[in-house]
Amino acid sequence: MATNSASNLFHVGRSLLRGLSSSSSGMLRSPQETTFNSFLAQQVRTFIQMRTNLKVVDNSGAKRVMCIQALKGKKGARLGDTIVASVKEAQPGGKVKKGQVVCGVVVRAAMPKGCSDGSEVKFDDNSVVLVNKQGEPIGTRVFGPVPHELRKKKHVKILSLAQHMA
Q: What is the CATH number of domain 53-165?
């Protein structure tokens, strides 16, 4: 079994090298090569889990946070879930400082989330709005689009601060 997977890996690696050398010559590619290249082109979207870096999209003073723990679910956090995070980058003179442990609500997630009407909501980045222990936002403004699905998770205050609802 191990030799079979090793030989497949060898064939994929060999076809990749052959594709690099023959890409300028315009030769047809093998099926293995096209599947491997399409696999590389796809970005795997996963849950927001421990050590995931997230962008902060409010004016609380933090720029980037790292997830310490997702407060719901074993796999990780999704759109609208609350996380505990550590501030990695902060603006000088902001409400939160570098190294501070804060709570946040995920407002944009790269992992697709299915809606009840059959559509999917997916964003390009992972973003969070920082909240206090009571669930109220620390900042007074929220930048960028915020999905309408946050209303189901009882984050109406974040929706009212947002400039644009997606």
A: 2.40.150.20
Cα distances from 124 to residues 30, 63, 77, 87, 113, in angstroms, run 31, 17, 16, 21, 13
Token readout for 33 is: 């090569």
- State the maximum Cα–Cα separation within the chain, in Å, rounded to a whole number: 62
> CB within 8 A of 30, min separation 6: which ones?
15
Angstrom distances, CA of residue 87 to CA of 74, 101, 163: 23, 6, 24
State both tokens at 122.
């997916």
Bigger pLDDT: 4 or 54? Answer: 54
Residue ranges, CATH 2.40.150.20, the chain: 53-165
Q: For 88-128, how does the pLDDT look when each residue is reduced to its tens digit (9 = 90+)?
A: 999 999 999 999 999 999 999 998 888 778 888 888 999 99
